[in-house]
Amino acid sequence: MSIHTEVKKITTNTLQKMKAAGEKISMITAYDYSFAKIFDAAGIDIILVGDSASNVMAGHETTLPITLDQMIYHAASVVRGIDRCFVVVDLPFGSYQGNSKEALHSAIRIMKETGGHSIKLEGGQEVVESIKRIVDTGIPVMGHLGLTPQSIYKFGTYAVRAKEEAEAEKLKKDALLLQEAGCFGIVLEKIPATLAGEVSRSLSIPTIGIGAGGACDGQVLVMHDMLGINVEFKPRFLRQYLNMYEQVTGAVQQYVKDVKSNDFPNESEQY
Ligand code: KIV
What we know:
By secondary structure, the chain is α/β, with parallel strands linked by helices. The chain folds into two domains: 3-240, Alpha-Beta Barrel (TIM Barrel); 246-271, no CATH class. 44% of the residues lie in helices and 13% in strands. It is built from twelve helices and eight strands. Strands 1-2-3-4-5-6-7-8 form an eight-stranded parallel beta barrel, surrounded by seven helices. Helix 6 (100-114) links the parallel strand 3 and strand 4 (118-120). Helix 6 packs across helix 7. The longest helix has 17 residues, at 165-181. The mean pLDDT is 97. 3-methyl-2-oxobutanoic acid binds at residues 29, 48, 50-52, 90, 187, 189, 210, 220, 222.
């Protein structure tokens, strides 16, 4: 039996044990009650209430506009749908970068107002002080290195990060700093697979990759991408498990037809 099926609830301890045992960790994003309920029942280990909600739920071009109040709304909805998985909630842009006091205040709001189990924030050495302060308060923190979408205007592109030696070296150092600061795990986004493998082996905490290859301790995908709701986004790292866009379009087209032709509702569908 696997560690993931043995436990009643997934905790940071479970994730740690999974890493030690070489058992891969599955993570997916969710932003509402109904999908969270399905993902939890399907056996997902971690739900990430990502600030990608800014893109896939609100239609913004970047993750920058979403507010702390909006993240709290999404996270509280997700938590009401789950029973056993671990919930990570993104601290949105502008809610933690100012100073460690602001970061702690935002993290406490997430924990108190959503019932989520941990927070995630982007960055390395520059957010270490904030991470320590949040962890010292008893809040589990997940780090996020590599492509960090909240810094998109600094990078200017969503291309693969840390291909050059200097950036790869900084990323390796940052990963160790985040572990020392008390992070229980780190998301590695869009970096070369060999680098992600090296980082994963150098850490005792799990790494969760997105576009970072198979040597990470777990994988995360944005639900709208893997379920084919958002079919325009086709990066190389994405495996699309469903074409919901096509299926939902077909269902709604049929519904429109049935209403127009007076086929719906029929005798048995009315009182
Ligand atoms: O916001 C998000 O969905 C994320 C994942 C891409 C890791 O941070």
